[in-house]
Each structure stands twice: as C-alpha cells, then as structure tokens.
Amino acid sequence: MSLKSIAKEAKTSISTVSRVLNNSEHKCNDNKLTERIWEIAKKQGYTPNTTARNLRIGKDNDDNNFTVDIFLTRFESMDEDSFFAELFLYLKEDILNQGCLLGDILSTIDIISDTDNDNNISSVPYKTYDELKNQRYINPMGIVAHKKNTGLIILGKCPNEFIPILKKRYKYISAVDRNPTDYEYDEVICNGMTAAEKAVEHLISLGHRNIAYIGDCTYETRYIGFYQALLNHKIALDYKNIFPSNQTEEDGYRIMKNILQSDNRPTGIFCANDSTALGVLKAIKNSKIRGYLPSIISIDNIKESENTEPMLTTIDIPKKEMGHLALMLLLDRRNGKHSKNIRVELPCHLIERESCNYI
C-alpha cells in the first residue's frame, strides 16, 4: 500500500492524498474527495503515521496511541449515509487532533461475516438480547476478540443483538444517534422524536392535515414523534400515508413515484432524513404531473439540502458537536474520569427554506 496507489484510485495527486491523510486541518475544496481518500485508505489498510506527524509539528509522541474504531450501524459505507459521512469528517479531525489513531471502520456486514466463521457466534442472531447480555463466555474469534487500547464510536442505532458482543470486545464505547438506548453505553443524542415532532408541527402550522411519513418504522423515534405530533392536534393516523423506507435517496425516489400515481396524495410529507427527501424532490421534479407540489420537510440538515430545488426545509442536527462530545466521553472514560453510562442530549432546530408552504 502506498500514497501513490491511493491517489491513483481516488483520481487525484499524491500530494493531495498526503495532505489529507497527514494533516487533520487540511480540507479539500471537494468534501467528497476528502471522504473518498479516507475510504480508499481504510480499505487498503492505511494508518496515519502519527509519530512522524507529531515530530514535524514539534509534539511529543505517545508510545501508546489510543485507537478509535468506527461502527456504521445502518449502512455498509459512508457513501450511503450523508449525515454520518459529514459527521465522520468532523470526528476524524477531532480524533487526529487528540493524538489518537483512526482504526477500523466497521459495518454490520463485517460483524456478521466475522461471527459466521465461528460455530458459536453464528448462532447469535437466534439468541435474544437478554440471553446474550447474560452469557458469560463467548468464543473470542473474529469481531469478538478483545481489542486493547482501542475504543469504539457507534454511529447510528445499534441492533440489540450486537451490543453484548461489542461490549466484550471494547472496554470503551460511545455512540452518536437519534434513538437513545436504555443507557447501554455512553451516548450523545439529538432525540429523533423531538426532531420529528418539530418537523410535523411545522407542517401543521402551515395548514397541512394530510401528512405522509417516509422512513424507518421499526422501533424508530422519528416515527413515534410523527405520530405524537398528529395526536397532539387530534389528527387521525392514516396508515395509507405511512411508507416504510430504508432511508436512502433511491428509496425516497421510488416511494414518491408510487405516491404520485395514487389518488389520495398527501399535501405534506415528512421524511425521516434528508437523503430520503432528496429522492422525493427528484421524483417530483421528474414527474409529468403538474399542479401537485407537496410541502417536504426532513431531518439532518446535510450540506446538499441547501442545493436542492426548491431548497429543503429541514431540522438541523448538530453533527460537529455530537461527534466531538462522543470522542470526549470515550477519552474521559478511558482516563477513569467516569464509570456510569452517560447520555448527553443536544437540541435541534428548524431550518426554514423553500420546500414548505401554506396549504
């Protein structure tokens, strides 16, 4: 593995790759290029040379650099989730600034494929959460092998069956999510239920009553918040307006195309995340149906939400602050400053743009 091979695959210069990987403060004009370079580097097994970097900037090197692994719970790569991709860029910078090493970037596919190689662990999906939590011995193969001097930051809603396994592997865990756990580990949240209520309340304030939900419906706080906002205004829940989704742009596009063909089209649509809303807006733009322009609102406030047509009304989730606090909790626990599981909750707020209008 070399900088040259990374540059070739990323289709950029070696000097650009070097600046991105060895200077946490360097930012490419194209944020997607920065992300692509890191993804390729991780795939090829690159680890930043923190010792050399510290010598260049005159900083003493710690022989026992703390490594931080990242677990993507919903998707296989950063490319599939713009919210966590943007959060990761902030988090990666913080990790390096704290003198830590960026470790493995894992997905549920990695966990399943590793555990399936062992007879004991392959049975994990068939055990209940309580059984796993109370199980004293798990064969330390693959993902379950304990990692010394390494912490884990979970990005997104972690499947319950994985939590006991991760706890056996990592001594230090923190998480960033919109769905709080029952204090299973340190976590930084911006409550999805609160964000969803705020979004739907905005649609209702504009006169909308026929409101659709596109998003995850499985133990999802954003779905609960959607329903709660309707209840608060005595609006009956119409299950024809509920569209379960994997919360990707492609799925948003597909679902909106189906809505456009229906006879009872909603006047307002709440999407569980901005990526879904991007697909919804594209489907409306490409539609031959004229005179139907529903109000669209979502959650996240990713950078691309400012470039849609119309510009997307959304609920801002403080990505930079959430990533920073998750790392601080991880380091604080490692340094023995706290032992009880801590939850830090940050507020969200409405970003009004052009995609929502009075009915």
Explain the layout of strands and helices.
Elements lengths: L2 H8 L3 H9 L8 H13 L6 H7 L10 E6 L9 H16 L3 E7 H8 L13 H6 L15 E6 L7 H7 L2 E6 L8 E4 L2 H14 L5 E5 L5 H12 L9 E3 L4 H12 L7 E4 L2 H13 L8 E6 L12 E4 L2 H16 L8 E3 L3 E3 L8
Parallel strand pairs: 1-2, 1-3, 3-4, 4-5, 5-11, 6-7, 6-8, 8-9, 9-10
Antiparallel strand pairs: 10-12
> What does the largest sheet look like?
6 strands, parallel
In helices, the fraction of residues equals 25-40%
Give the distance, in angstroms, between the N- and C-terminal Cα atoms: 57 Å
> What pattern of helices and strands is seen along the backbone?
HHHHEHEHHEHEEHEHEHEHEEHEE
- Assembly level: single chain
Radius of gyration: 22 Å
Low-confidence stretches: 50-63, 114-129, 135-144
Contiguous helical run count = 13
Short description:
The chain is α/β, with parallel strands linked by helices and 359 residues long. The chain has 13 helices and twelve strands.
Detailed description of the structure:
The chain is of the alpha/beta class and 359 residues long. Helices cover 39% and strands 16% of the residues. Residues 50-63, 114-129 and 135-144 have low confidence and may be disordered. The protein is globular and about 60 Å long.
